[in-house]
Amino acid sequence: MGAPLAREARGVEARVVRLAALLPRGYAFTVIGIAVGVAGLVSLGAMAERIMRFIDGGDRFVLGQISVAGEGMGMGTGFTAGSLLSAAKIAEIAAVPGVSGVQAQVMLPLNTSTSHFLTLTQELIMGLDLSVPMPNRHYRELPVGAGRSLGPGDHRVTVLGADFAASRHLAVGSTIALGGQDFTVVGILEKTFTAPDRFALVPIEDARELWLRRDPLLVQAFGAASVRRGDLNTGAAVGWRDGEDPDALARRIQASVAGLNVTIPGELSNLLRQSTAFFSALLLGIGALGLLIGGLSLANTVTAAVFERLRDFGIKRALGATDLDLLGEVLGEGLRVSLWGGAAGVFLALGIGRTVDSRLLRDGQQLFLFSPRLLGFALVFSVALGALAAGYATLRIARLSPAEAIRRGT
């Protein structure tokens, strides 16, 4: 029994030795310096990725449908604010050539003290007409991460956005009060990094009930039979047939059906892009600055580490090492040090990001998004720049005579 244990111990020892051999001696502080620089670069990149995903997600959402509401300002919320959109108006919209489907919706702010106008971060109760397929071309079905989607016949149940659920520590089977009514959570959406993350999706009849309970004027109008229950819609999402130009169709709806607020997808997308242009420019500047600072820091650290061994390289050249031998040794060490530092920096950034986000997620927020392309770029960037820095240092050393290298390194 002792012999197998001894062999196993020697095997573990050998693996540790091989792993340690991958990191050249005397470069510990160099690795730490590279790791700090790469961690800063990755963290800045992760914040930029998070914001860009949010902007792109919102753009994708509004480009996937034509949003309409009744003419005027007031009761609506979400992408199109306006007055009631009656069932008769929805039928007229559905009859416009090129329309593939119209889904009535009721969008209510969870907190009535919040603005009812355009926002992608507002928490909303969204009532959906489940008898009509979702017409948004980019979100035929919102992706469900846990539980199930809403279905016909559902009552007093809800599917929550990822941030909405996380901020309240809710799971499938939990109960949540919406507008004074208890709803059972039957599903939680996958994180989309855009508006649906903060939605509470409910059947449209339940949303209408919440709306009636919330607005006394509507109760009076409904009681006087001047408004039918099917007319209680804040808006509708309109889909288009294949081959149709959505902007042209939106204008056609506007011209064909009187008394509507119609958003033109292309114009709304441009509005979103213009409103976030400052943030896009800011992120570009931060990214360029991060690359410059991180690159200079990494290159300077590797170059300085190579020059610290100037005397060793002078002695090796005096003993017969060629410039090619020297280049191979320095490049090998530079690549290994850069790889170790880059990997350590990535793990350091991940650790910082996960720690910060774990606290922010309690409020349904997320600051960092570590995408595979970002992490891959950080590793390639650190290795490539480390190799260039090591190659530059080697050429500088090769120009010195062995005696001069030994003297300067002393």
Mean pLDDT across all amino acids: 80
Subunit arrangement of the protein:
single chain
Q: Give the amount of beta strand, in percent.
A: 5-15%
Question: Number of DSSP strands?
Answer: 10
Backbone shape: elongated
What are the low-pLDDT stretches, counting only 5+ consecutive residues below 50?
9-17, 74-80, 114-120
Using the CA coordinates, give the radius of gyration: 31 Å
Q: Specify the structural class.
A: alpha+beta
So how many helices? 13
Give the helices and strands as they follow along the chain.
HHEHEEEEHEEEHHEHEHHHHHH
Distance between the termini: 54 Å
Q: How many structural domains are formed by the residues?
A: 2
Main β-sheet: number of strands, strand sense, barrel status? Answer: 10 strands, mixed
Helix content: 40-55%
What can you tell me about this protein's structure?
With 410 residues, this protein is α+β, with helices and mostly antiparallel strands. The chain has two domains: 163 residues, no CATH class; 187 residues, no CATH class. It is 55% helix and 14% strand. Strands 1, 2, 3, 4, 5, 6, 7, 8, 9 and 10 form a ten-stranded mixed β-sheet that branches. A hairpin with a 2-residue loop joins strand 6 and strand 7. Helix 2 runs antiparallel to helix 12, helix 10 packs antiparallel against helix 13 and helix 11 runs antiparallel to helix 12. The longest helix has 38 residues. It is elongated, with a radius of gyration of 31 Å. About 6% of the residues have low confidence.
